[in-house]
Amino acid sequence: MPINLKKQRLQNGLFGRYFNNYFSDNMSNLTNPTNSDIQTQLSSYSVGTTDTWLFRGYFLADTTATNWRFRTNSDDASFVWIGSDSTATDSNLNTSNAVVDNGGLHGTQARTSSNISLTEGVFYPFAVVIGNNNGPGTLTLSFSSNGGTNYSTNGLGYFFYNPYAPNGFNLE
């Protein structure tokens, strides 16, 4: 699950790519991104009508714990992958093995992962997608290292991306 990387190669934030279509919970619908963005946090991140954003990079755990949790609060669909399940190509990310499945068309709703074991100082491959079909769309991504007692949306020092890769993730 972990990947050994040199932190000095990475930069803060997640690398996002914009797709001018709603992905309908099917990652194979995401082809030809037309824009990009870097975000150190995804808190009330706005997504336009019939748009999708896919953010990739790495999550750096700051403590070893067996009860890390990830949560999305989104309108419409959002999914989160961490570890080996997030290393597939964009169109091959499998929504059925996402740690957070907040899929479908819906108003703002929250979904939380079960407990995940992470080790301090390890960079874990990480991906999050948010798609909006109708009306205003938003995403808040948060995480907790204590079983959900306290959540943070500030990814500074947790989220990293590879500036040498076209999608912020793959090493070249």
Structure description:
The protein has 172 residues and is mainly beta. 0% of the residues lie in helices and 42% in strands. It is built from no helices and 13 strands. Strands 1, 2, 3, 5, 7, 8, 11 and 13 form an eight-stranded antiparallel sheet that branches. Strands 4, 6, 9, 10 and 12 form a five-stranded antiparallel sheet that branches. The protein starts with 10 loop residues before the first strand and ends in an 11-residue tail after the last strand.
Ordered list of secondary-structure elements with their pairings:
Blueprint: E1 11-12, E2 14-19, E3 35-39, E4 45-47, E5 51-60, E6 65-75, E7 78-82, E8 100-102, E9 109-112, E10 116-118, E11 123-132, E12 137-144, E13 159-161
Antiparallel strand pairs: 1-13, 2-3, 2-5, 4-12, 5-11, 5-13, 6-9, 6-10, 6-12, 7-8, 7-11
Average residue-wise pLDDT: 93
**What share of residues is helical?**
under 10%
State the end-to-end CA separation. 19 Å
Low-confidence stretches: none
**Proportion in β-strands:** 35-45%
Biggest sheet details: 8 strands, antiparallel
Envelope shape = globular
Oligomer: single chain
Q: Kindly state the number of beta strands.
A: 13
Helix and strand element order: EEEEEEEEEEEEE
Structural class: mainly beta
Helix run count = 0
Taking Cα atoms only, what radius of gyration do you get, to the nearest Å?
A: 15 Å
